[in-house]
């Protein structure tokens, strides 16, 4: 494998680490955003459940005011409570559509409101306005209906408290999960930086050793060859017989051929000098 290809693969490995870490952190960030959205919705459900409960309490208080010779003030309070209840009811019907258990419990509250609380208020209004009943009969009738009203409001408040408790539990669970994702993302980022640093240093050291070590040996051989030591071809064969599969192999082979060429040249020169010397001896004889 060529050196350039090795470097490219090392680079691609680091890129793969970046992509994996980035994808994981992005996923965690998305999950955290979803959890935050869920927390916001749960808080809104809790607020509207509280508003509905407050509306029922106001309706009860307004009814009592109505029966205590302050009918106008009582009616104003009941009208205001009805607006609060309708607004909260519309929101909760939609928000709890994906939570059947809480929706059933809330529908029980609505059922109490429509089938028990409102009829009791209607009866109280009718008794209060009646001219066919004595004072004692009116008081007894109003008190009986007020008892029904207050019991129904207490039951509705308890059910709404259960809805609010469930939403707060969901908020707490979502907060814990979000914190877990945040902690994991932090640990992942730290681990990724450490892993990338170690991998980069390791790959740099490995690649450096595979390239620099043979080059240093070749440089030492080249220096000795330059001083006339042509026996370095044996050293070259014994000590730098490295099969890296890249340009280093080609460079080692080139050194071998170069030294062999020098030795051949030296041999040919020696033979030529020997021939010249023999000719001169023959001439002298």
Question: What tags apply to this protein structure?
Answer:
285 residues; mainly alpha; 2 domains; 0% strand
Main beta-sheet annotation: none
Question: Proportion of β residues?
Answer: under 5%
Order of helices and strands: HHHHHH
Please identify the structural class as seen in this structure.
Answer: mainly alpha
**What is the terminal-to-terminal distance?**
64 Å
Oligomer: single chain
Measured as a percent range, the helix fraction is over 70%
Poorly predicted ranges: none
Question: How would you describe what is shown here?
Answer:
This protein is mainly alpha-helical and 285 residues long. It has helices at residues 3-66, 71-95, 100-129, 135-226, 232-239, 247-284. It folds into two domains: 22-189, no CATH class; 201-284. The longest helix has 92 residues, at 135-226. The radius of gyration is 47 Å and the shape is rod-shaped. The two termini are 64 Å apart.
How is this fold's topology laid out?
Elements: H1 3-66, H2 71-95, H3 100-129, H4 135-226, H5 232-239, H6 247-284
Helix pairs in contact: 1-2, 1-4, 3-4, 4-6, 5-6
Summarize the entry for a quick read.
This protein is an all-alpha fold. It has helices at residues 3-66, 71-95, 100-129, 135-226, 232-239, 247-284.
